[in-house]
């Protein structure tokens, strides 16, 4: 369900109200609609095609993180600012009442994001957090999205495709240094790996003091941010431990982590079908990595709206 | 996993890790195992919460081999999994860890067979789960003790989960505690009250102690009374022979609802740690005023629905309370004089469990001249435990139009819509807690004994008299005496 409007915040908000009134009236005989909203989720898409993908992803995210979605994307033809409102509705299993979250899609000319920042202020849901999801590689460098950053409680990037890991990390550090809370989906992709490694230290199966060195191996032509993150995470957890980052052939991403002790090595290595093989201390077993879909990664990040000290330490290291 | 112990801990993102262990379930072919325990364990596996290596060893008298038991449990999990997720591949991996030992719990050889089975799984830690008839609890604990199954090797642990009812009165609860403590330490004894594992019951603590606006009002000065209702629309559903010995007072109020009351009324603990929280719950339970014998008729009501005595397995002359209601007072500074009305019954109009906190009226009826509902509706905070889990606040609002007519409106928080995510079942939560050694949501010996002490005078009164049962129709809100009980104190039940 959608309607269009020229970009005037008051007009957009009025359109939203009318949309809700119409949906309530349409659904009056089948239990009505329930408006759910826990945050403003602003998404800066790369282009119109990307905005379409974002709408699908946001539709899924709404189920667990109901929000007012504000999807911003540049108009490749360089046209006027335009906006339309829409609702994402779903019916929980066995229930008659529809649950709906609302959305606003704003199209701006290539240089129009600075204008959009002005509109975003009145379009935020009052008193609730604002999460800004900046898509694409270009978001990780100074550019037209900068005016939006101060409005967000948290800014989410994805450095998986950057060619220069160091400059992407520098950009994130600078942003955090200015007081923004930042996240990187390429760090989020490491959660499964990190959890498996952390479990090795539970129940005193492996003592931190036993570890003398670590090797993090990744695939791809250049060092990725995920390899940098993983190495930094080990260094901050085990200060003084020598951590070597190396690459091998194969797809981008983490391939293996080897922890060395005085007498043996423990290896976590990528297997097939999103499984990792863990071996060492006389044992060998497999564990599934969690889904790395964009929806799953965003779900995880949207669940953390406060400080994320472990990520911050890895980013700083 | 705490950050202090493990330098790689990330509590914001990692689930608590369940240590490798064997779960030995006594009564493994019974209803609870089929409906709750195995579906919960399967769901934990589905959510990747179980460790790579674990074992479940079931026991009952029914002769079966491992594969028979696996086939039975496969059907049970398919039938009773709450959200219907069933993954055949996952089940195969899960079932490979499922084992069975047939035998009578009174037979010492059973425990030897269990030991061999557990040893064969290679697990050092053992969680015993008593899911049998309560009359077997003592003999099982003795059997575990005599066979030295409870003796853990260095660095390993043994824990015991005991299902309710924990005793049938104060004396029997004390005796059972004493028998258990001969084998298990109190810190290794997990008395399960699945109500405490419900997300919505845990959320009571979050609401009260995580927010600044409620706690200042949470006392005798602002709260008029509290109603706790646990209503079921169904009858005994084939559990007639068990239920006629238990009754609503023992089955619901002594354990679940008094624990809920304690959660609503307890003082904040200094820290959110297992014993600190349980100390406060226990303190509250000990503060509940014990009825004097002559007060029981005034403050407690028993009921039985028409048709109960015709249920299969029920004595045609049964004196069982299928409905029980009580008025309880808490003797402390916060709650002195505030009645807590608790009721539970079967064959009531609908299935609902909720807590209604009724606030005092506004001191001045400023808008009474405008008409409307203002005098009839005090503010209500309703904590809905099930179904439609959530919280509602009822307050008065001006009706649109001229004049000042007020109308009650509801501000609703719905658990499902605000979080969207699936809530773990109470058994999933509690099983994980027991495996990781977190007893916060389990009841302690002193809590159990305090709650039995609260209902002991009612039990004594009711067991020494003959009721004129049945006294309420199915589909009604219970006997008229319950309405009279609350009306004597100038209140009425929320029957909505």
Give an overview of the whole structure.
The complex is a heterodimer of chains A (317) and B (496). Chain A is α/β, with parallel strands linked by helices and 317 residues long. Chain A folds into 2 domains: 2-152; 191-288, 3-Layer(aba) Sandwich (Glutaredoxin). In chain A, 32% of the residues lie in helices and 30% in strands. Chain A has 9 helices and 15 strands. In chain A, strand 13 (265-270) and strand 14 (275-280) form a beta hairpin. The model of chain A is unreliable at 1-5 (pLDDT under 50). With 496 residues, chain B is α/β, with parallel strands linked by helices. In chain B, the strands form 2 sheets. Chain B has an 8-stranded mixed sheet, sandwiched between helices. Chain B has a 6-stranded parallel sheet with strand order 3-2-1-4-5-6, with helices on both faces. In chain B, helix 6 (170-181) links the parallel strand 5 and strand 6 (189-191). In chain B, helix 1 (31-46) crosses helix 2, helix 6 runs antiparallel to helix 14 (445-463) and helix 10 packs parallel to helix 14. Classes of the chains: A alpha/beta (317), B alpha/beta (496).
Summarize the structure.
The complex is a heterodimer of chains A (317) and B (496). Chain A is α/β, with parallel strands linked by helices.
How is this fold's topology laid out?
The complex is a heterodimer of chains A (317) and B (496).
Chain A: E1 2-6, H1 9-26, E2 33-35, E3 39-44, H2 48-64, E4 67-74, E5 82-90, E6 98-108, H3 113-123, E7 130-134, E8 154-157, H4 165-177, E9 182-184, H5 185-188, H6 191-199, E10 213-219, H7 225-237, E11 242-248, E12 253-260, E13 265-270, E14 275-280, E15 283-288, H8 294-302, H9 309-316
Chain B: E1 22-26, H1 31-46, E2 55-60, H2 66-80, H3 88-95, E3 98-102, H4 108-121, E4 126-130, H5 137-146, E5 158-162, H6 170-181, E6 189-191, H7 194-197, H8 199-210, E7 223-231, H9 240-265, H10 274-287, H11 296-299, E8 300-303, E9 323-328, E10 340-345, E11 352-359, E12 380-386, E13 390-398, E14 406-414, H12 415-419, H13 426-436, H14 445-463, H15 480-487
Parallel strand pairs in B: 1-2, 1-4, 2-3, 4-5, 5-6, 7-10
Antiparallel strand pairs in B: 7-11, 8-9, 9-10, 11-12, 12-13, 13-14
């Amino acid at each position: 369900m959608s309607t269009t409007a020229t970009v005037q915040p008051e007009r957009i908000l009025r359109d939203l109200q009318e949309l809700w009134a119409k949906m309530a009236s349409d659904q009056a005989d089948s239990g009505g609609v329930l408006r759910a909203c826990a945050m403003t989720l602003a998404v800066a898409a790369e282009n119109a095609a990307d905005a379409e993908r974002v709408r699908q992803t946001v539709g899924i995210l709404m189920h667990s993180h109901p929000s007012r979605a504000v999807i911003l994307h540049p108009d490749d033809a360089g046209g006027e600012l335009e906006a339309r409102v829409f609702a994402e509705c779903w019916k929980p299993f066995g229930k008659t009442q529809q649950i709906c979250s609302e959305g606003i899609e704003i199209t701006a000319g290539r240089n129009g994001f600075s204008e959009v920042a002005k509109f975003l202020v009145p379009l935020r849901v009052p008193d609730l957090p604002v999460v800004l999801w900046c898509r694409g590689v270009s978001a990780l460098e100074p550019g037209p999205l900068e005016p939006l950053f101060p409005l967000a409680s948290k800014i989410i990037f994805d450095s998986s495709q950057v060619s220069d890991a160091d400059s992407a990390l520098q950009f994130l550090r600078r942003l955090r240094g200015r007081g923004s809370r930042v996240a990187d989906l390429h760090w989020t992709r490491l959660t499964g790996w990190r959890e498996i490694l952390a479990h090795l230290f539970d129940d005193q199966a492996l003592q931190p003091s036993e570890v003398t060195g670590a090797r993090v191996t990744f695939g791809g032509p250049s060092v990725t941010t995920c390899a940098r993150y993983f190495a930094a995470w080990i260094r901050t957890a085990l200060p003084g431990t020598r951590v070597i980052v190396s690459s091998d052939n194969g797809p981008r991403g983490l391939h293996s982590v080897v922890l060395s002790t005085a007498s043996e090595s423990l290896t976590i290595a990528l297997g097939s079908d999103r499984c990792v093989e863990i071996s060492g201390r006389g044992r060998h077993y497999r564990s599934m990595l969690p889904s790395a879909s964009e929806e799953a990664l965003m779900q995880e990040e949207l669940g953390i709206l406060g400080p994320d000290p472990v990520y911050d330490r890895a980013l700083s290291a | 996993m705490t950050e202090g112990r493990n330098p790689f801990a990330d509590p914001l993102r990692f689930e608590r890790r369940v240590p490798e262990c064997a779960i030995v379930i006594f009564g493994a072919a019974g209803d609870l195992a089929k409906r709750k325990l195995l579906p919960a364990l399967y769901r934990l596996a589905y959510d990747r919460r179980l460790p790579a290596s674990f074992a479940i060893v079931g026991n009952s008298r029914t002769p079966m081999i491992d594969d028979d038991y696996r086939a039975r449990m496969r059907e049970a999990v398919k039938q009773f999994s709450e959200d219907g997720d069933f993954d055949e591949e996952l089940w195969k991996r899960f079932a490979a860890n499922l084992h069975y030992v047939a035998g009578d719990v009174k037979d010492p050889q059973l425990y030897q067979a269990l030991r061999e089975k557990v040893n064969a799984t290679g697990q050092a830690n053992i969680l015993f789960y008593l899911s049998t008839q309560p009359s077997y609890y003592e003999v099982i604990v003795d059997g575990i003790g005599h066979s030295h199954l409870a003796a853990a090797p260095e660095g390993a642990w043994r824990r015991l989960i005991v299902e309710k009812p924990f005793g049938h009165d104060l004396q029997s609860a004390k005796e059972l505690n004493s028998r258990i403590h001969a084998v298990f330490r109190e810190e290794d004894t997990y008395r399960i009250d699945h109500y405490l594992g419900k997300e919505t019951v845990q959320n009571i603590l979050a609401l009260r102690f995580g927010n600044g606006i409620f706690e200042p009002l949470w006392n005798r000065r602002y709260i008029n009374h509290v109603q706790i209702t646990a209503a079921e629309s169904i009858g005994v559903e084939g559990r007639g022979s068990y239920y006629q010995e238990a009754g609503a007072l023992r089955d619901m109020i002594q354990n679940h609802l008094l624990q809920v009351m304690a959660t609503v009324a307890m003082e904040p603990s200094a820290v959110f740690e297992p014993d600190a929280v349980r100390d406060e719950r226990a303190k509250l339970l000990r503060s509940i005023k014990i009825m004097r014998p002559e007060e029981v008729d005034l403050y407690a009501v028993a009921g039985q629905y028409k048709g109960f005595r015709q249920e299969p397995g029920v004595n045609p002359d049964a004196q069982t309370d299928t409905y029980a209601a009580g008025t309880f007072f808490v003797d402390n500074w916060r709650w002195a004089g505030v009645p807590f009305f608790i009721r539970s019954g079967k064959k009531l109009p609908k299935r609902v469990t909720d807590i209604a906190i009724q606030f005092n009226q506004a001191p001045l009826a400023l808008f009474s001249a405008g008409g409307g509902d203002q005098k009839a509706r005090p503010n209500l905070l309703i904590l809905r435990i099930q179904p439609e889990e959530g919280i509602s606040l009822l307050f008065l609002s001006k009706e649109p139009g001229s004049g000042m007519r007020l109308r009650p409106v509801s501000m609703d928080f719905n658990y499902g819509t605000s979080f969207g995510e699936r809530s773990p079942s109470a058994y999933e939560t509690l099983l994980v807690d027991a495996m990781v050694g977190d007893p916060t949501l389990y009841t302690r010996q002193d809590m159990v004994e305090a709650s039995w002490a609260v209902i002991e005078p009612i039990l004594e009164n009711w067991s020494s008299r003959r009721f004129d049962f049945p006294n309420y129709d199915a589909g009604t809100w219970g006997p008229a005496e319950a309405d009279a009980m609350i009306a004597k104190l100038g209140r009425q039940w929320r029957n909505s």
